[in-house]
Amino acid sequence: MKEIGLDNVALLVIDVQNAFCHRSGSLAKLGKDIDSLVRIREPCRELVAVAHSQAIPVIYTRNVYRADYSDRGVMAHEIRPVLKEVQSCVHGTWDAELTEEFIVEQRDYCFDKSRPSAFFNCGVDTVLRNLNITTVVICGVTTSICVESTVRDASQRDYRTFVVSDAVAELERARHDASLVTMEYFFAHIIELREALSQWA
């Protein structure tokens, strides 16, 4: 097992928002089974708590869009237009906010993004470089979309990248499992929550 370490490391918490991880959010309103997404709120919270205890930077991301979705591009208008219909993740709404467990403290960072990857035009990479971060630990949703997109971009920027397998989630188990296999094959170390917590504790 590769060591994460306590130096030059940051925790990235990807899109743990009401839209995806709350039973009154826009994804649930579309009739999706979000049980797996709801369940990872607690392991993500545990990771945040131990990161804070070790003075490890915590970086949250949120999917946030204009009400007219003019900043969301082809995905919203052609591939998944139903998300626009339910106004998923619209700026300034409860749907776009992080779930109640996650309070962005003064020492934390929170970036809004309009694409799956946390490295696309939202400032995460700049902060990581300025903090001299060389290792990122990633949790959140969803495994095959925003998590994997972020992992690929982190790896290609030469960050040591760790994905906490039981602190990421997907709507379908098959996509979750396939994404973990892909990430482990070429882009990231896959670890379990207990391993991450024990290394940081």
List keywords for this structure.
6-stranded parallel beta sheet; globular; alpha/beta; 201 residues; 10 helices; Rossmann fold; 6 strands
Account of the protein in words:
With 201 residues, the chain is an alpha/beta fold. It has a domain of 134 residues: Isochorismatase-like (Rossmann fold, 3-Layer(aba) Sandwich), CATH 3.40.50.850. Helices cover 39% and strands 18% of the residues. It is built from 10 helices and 6 strands; from the N terminus they run βααααβααβαβαβαβα. A 6-stranded parallel β-sheet has the order 3-2-1-4-5-6, with helices on both faces. Helix 9 links the parallel strand 5 and strand 6. The longest helix has 14 residues.
Q: What is the string of helix and strand elements?
A: EHHHHEHHEHEHEHEH
Net shape: globular
Low-confidence parts, pLDDT < 50 over ≥5 residues?
Answer: none
Number of strands: 6
List the helices and strands and how they pair.
Blueprint: E1 9-14, H1 18-21, H2 26-29, H3 35-39, H4 41-53, E2 58-63, H5 74-79, H6 82-85, E3 109-113, H7 124-130, E4 135-141, H8 143-156, E5 160-169, H9 173-186, E6 189-191, H10 193-200
Helix pairs in contact: 4-10, 8-9
